[in-house]
TrEMBL record:
Keyword Glycoprotein attached: yes
Designated name of the protein: Butyrophilin-like protein 2
Keyword Transmembrane: yes
A GO term from the CC aspect: external side of plasma membrane
One of the GO biological process terms: negative regulation of T cell proliferation
Native source organism of the sequence: Clupea harengus
Gene responsible for this protein: LOC116222107
């Protein structure tokens, strides 16, 4: 083996692993948001001998390719077209091959690889997008019934560790328009339409648990209908509906009715007796 041969073999062994820096922990992105997937080298590599390949580790789909001093969008997988970019030329020159992924979708979760190749050296690291966060709202699994004059709870819970910036309860009117019932915004509660004023509230102590259920007191016949609970936080939003139906009469109302009814019957009997009595006296 020639001296030159030994030398290149030594270089090959010595330089086989380009040291790449990735994220210290798996990444979490918001649905529809922007995410940076870090990948960089300490010592910048001259652009003319640099090749960077970002791929999905599972499907091997090409997410982004940088070759011969420029990005190669034509070879990019359709799923990532126009969504995956490097930062500036300046960052590339500094050895920063981090990827900027826009309009994040749920399908973006998974393992990625950042491969960096020069004429002599190669390096590869894995970068994981662990979760795509979104808001999920749970309402009632069936229609809720209530009695006139009593109170009812309309369930709405936010199933996420992202605290929502805003949660609103609205009633869907017959013309599909929404009438605000109660609003939670930046930790404050605001009343809605005057017809609900003083009759609605959140369970304040339950809010940190994501329970934005509505307590509606002194239910009226016209309260019957569809209610929508909407939440949003940053780019994320979600909604759920609850149907309030079959407004019956409360036991109190029934008792009052029964009493009224009996009073009416008693009154009838009494007046009949009086009438008979008067008739008897006249005869
Ligand atoms: C990303 O989303 C924005 C608005 O949310 C939209 O205007 C743009 O076309 C989207 N881009 C891609 C590549 O989907
Ligand atoms: C790479 O560039 C982005 C955008 O300028 C920056 O946020 C990030 O910190 C850079 N990473 C490194 C390792 O310099
Ligand atoms: C409302 O939520 C509570 C607690 O999760 C549950 O017990 C109750 O059945 C729910 N009500 C409806 C109508 O879904
Ligand atoms: C929300 O809190 C109220 C009051 O504690 C409770 O009645 C209701 O069931 C809770 N709803 C959910 C969905 O946990
Ligand atoms: C809302 O309250 C939470 C917890 O009490 C707090 O972390 C957050 O900063 C508050 N947000 C606003 C906008 O006041
Ligand atoms: C409720 O959410 C669905 C998607 O889940 C959306 O299509 C709809 O427009 C939302 N409705 C409202 C009133 O925000």
């Amino acid at each position: 083996m020639s001296f030159r041969g030994i030398l290149s073999a030594v270089i090959l062994v010595f330089s086989e692993g380009l040291i790449l820096q990735g994220p210290s922990s798996p990444l979490v992105a918001q649905l529809g948001g922007v995410l940076r997937l870090p990948c960089s080298v300490e010592t910048p590599i001259p652009l003319d001998e640099l090749e960077v390949e970002w791929r999905r580790a599972d499907s091997k789909a090409l997410v982004h390719l940088f070759q011969e001093g420029e990005s190669r969008p034509e070879s990019q997988s359709d799923a990532y077209r126009d969504r995956a970019h490097f930062f500036t030329e300046r960052e590339i020159a500094k050895g920063n091959y981090s990827l900027l992924l826009r309009n994040v979708t749920t399908d973006d979760a998974g393992m990625y690889s950042c491969g960096v190749y020069t004429n002599e050296e190669t390096g590869e690291i894995a970068v994981e997008i662990e979760a795509i966060e979104r808001l999920v709202l749970t309402g009632a699994d069936h229609a809720v019934t209530a009695n006139v004059g009593e109170e009812v709870i309309l369930n709405c819970s936010v199933d996420s560790h992202i605290p929502p910036e805003e949660v609103s309860w609205a009633k869907v009117d017959s013309d599909e328009s929404h009438m605000l019932v109660l609003l939670f915004q930046e930790n404050e509660t605001y009343p809605g339409d005057s017809s609900y004023q003083g009759r609605t509230e959140f369970f304040t102590s339950e809010i940190p648990k994501g329970n934005f259920s509505l307590r509606l007191k002194d239910v009226r016949t016209e309260d019957k209908g569809e209610y929508i609970c909407k939440a949003h936080s940053g780019l994320l939003s979600a909604n759920t509906t609850v149907i309030l139906q079959e407004l019956g009469l409360s036991s109190m109302h029934i008792l009052v009715l029964v009493l009224c009814g009996s009073a009416f019957v008693v009154a009838l009997v009494v007046s009949a007796m009086i009438l008979l009595d008067i008739k008897g006296k006249l005869m």
